[in-house]
Amino acid sequence: MITGKTKLLGVIGYPVEHSLSPLMHNAAIQAINDRQNQQNLIDYVYLPFPIKPEDLNTAIAGFSAIGVHGFNITIPHKQAIIPLLSEVSDIARVVGAVNTVYRTNKGWVGTNTDVAGFLAPLQTYNWNWHQKVAVILGNGGASRAVVAGCAQLGFAEIHVVGRSEDKLTAFQQSWVNSPLPVNLTIHKWDELSSLIAQADLLVNTTPIGMYPNIQESPVDEAMFDNLSPGAIVYDLIYIPNPTKFLQQAQVRGAIAIDGLEMLVQQGATALELWLQQSVPVDVMRRSLRQHLGLSK
Ligand code: NAP
């Protein structure tokens, strides 16, 4: 129910119509109220805001003026928002992108919950990460959050695979002065076959295999035979679910993690920041699975 005191949350992006965030955040807000007694109800609504790049400054000034409580940021504003904030968290600086903004008495503070979202499903495994090797496919924005997450876990080796020598070199360079311990090596795709054999964690951060190209996989069928059966294979893509990449891994006895859990967990971390209370992750997950027609 919208009242005279309803506080505004939302997501900015361009385009933003595809975003699943309004669905899961509003489902969580409703569930919190369904579980509370009448005195402790929370009064928030989460809306999508399509904001063109040239309108970003005006929009953020407007958000300040109308007292928006907090918001998420998606493509193309994750870097452009940074100069408009009063403060940026250490993890957002390391990643070089902000996906969540909250308000303090100093002004807007930006952080990055993609790293926590990526880590949440991995942390359910009690592995000695310091002895493990991560192989990460892709060197774009999401890859940065994945590298930061792997570094936080303390991976012994992090290997990043890309198709552009220049982009790979710039990517590696950007981690040289990182406060996180990152033992990072860069590779072209033709080295993937031998890398897969060493991988304890193999992560796809490229869009290869994303709907509608559901027959594609970033890894050849034959190359997957080199994978060790106990490895974790993680795809950041959440539609289709599972992707061909994850199906190939599952057939070979690997542990498969899909991108939906990362999406849910980055959202839950953001909502906890805004509401300063624990949030129903189960409701957020179920709302997305139902919407996507997946089994519970
Ligand atoms: P991005 O910044 O555009 O990076 C994409 C990366 O994939 C780049 O390194 C790009 O290489 C590489 N790539 C693209 N097409 C390729 C191809 N055909 N062959 C080889 N490499 C290719 O995108 P992003 O923001 O990192 O997102 C990547 C994926 O992660 C998307 O599918 C997105 O939906 C997903 N994602 C999921 C979550 C989640 O919560 N589950 C969060 C963030 C992102 P070049 O640099 O050479 O172009």
Give the DSSP E fraction (strand runs of 2 or more residues).
15-25%
> What oligomeric state best describes the polypeptide chains here?
single chain
Strand order of the largest sheet: 2-1-3-5-6-4
Please trace the helix and strand order, writing H or E for each element: EHEHEEHEEHEHEHEHEHEHEHH
General shape: globular
Structural class: alpha/beta
Q: How many strand segments?
A: 12
Bound molecules: NADP nicotinamide-adenine-dinucleotide phosphate
Q: What's the pLDDT, averaged over the residues?
A: 96
Query: How large, in whole angstroms, is the Cα Rg?
Result: 20 Å
| Low-confidence parts | none
Distance between the termini: 27 Å
Compute the number of helices: 11
Helix content: 25-40%
Biggest beta sheet summary:
6 strands, mixed
General description of the model:
With 296 residues, the protein is of the alpha/beta class. The protein is built from eleven helices and twelve strands. The strands form two sheets. Strands 2-1-3-5-6-4 form a six-stranded mixed sheet. Strands 9-8-7-10-11-12 form a six-stranded parallel sheet, with helices on both faces. Helix 1 (21-35) crosses helix 11 (281-291), helix 4 (114-122) crosses helix 10 (259-275) and helix 10 crosses helix 11. The two termini are 27 Å apart. Bound molecules: NADP nicotinamide-adenine-dinucleotide phosphate.
